């Protein structure tokens, strides 16, 4: 059941992050939006534990997942922007 909640929270976090940071070269679709949110939650959990905001074993919530997804979108935009330049 926790995997189902992770997918649902990941999807909601991905949708909110894409609403906050719209762009042309971002991943789209249900599956990629869900993956974006889940990866954002993992990024937020890792950074939060490294900075001491979360205890070991404690995960990020919805707000942390949204912030992590925005960070992932920023990094993705920088990488995708570099690769689209013609040689």
Automatic annotation (TrEMBL):
Parts of the chain that traverse the membrane: 27-47, 59-79
Pfam families recorded: Transgly_assoc
Lineage: Bacteria, Pseudomonadati, Pseudomonadota, Alphaproteobacteria, Hyphomicrobiales
Protein name stated in the entry: GlsB/YeaQ/YmgE family stress response membrane protein
Key words of the record: Cell membrane, Membrane, Transmembrane, Transmembrane helix
Keyword Glycosyltransferase (UniProt): no
Membrane topology: Multi-pass membrane protein
InterPro entries for the chain: Transgly_assoc
UniProt similarity note: Belongs to the UPF0410 family.
A cellular component annotation (GO) from this entry: plasma membrane
Record flagged with keyword Membrane: yes
């Amino acid at each position: 059941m926790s995997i189902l909640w992770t997918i649902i929270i990941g999807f909601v976090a991905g949708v909110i992050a894409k609403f906050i940071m719209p762009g042309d070269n971002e991943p789209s679709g249900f599956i990629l939006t869900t993956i974006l949110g889940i990866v954002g939650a993992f990024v937020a959990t890792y950074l939060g534990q490294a900075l001491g905001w979360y205890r070991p074993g404690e995960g990020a919530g919805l707000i942390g997942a949204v912030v992590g997804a925005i960070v992932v979108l920023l990094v993705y935009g920088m990488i995708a922007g570099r690769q689209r330049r013609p040689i």
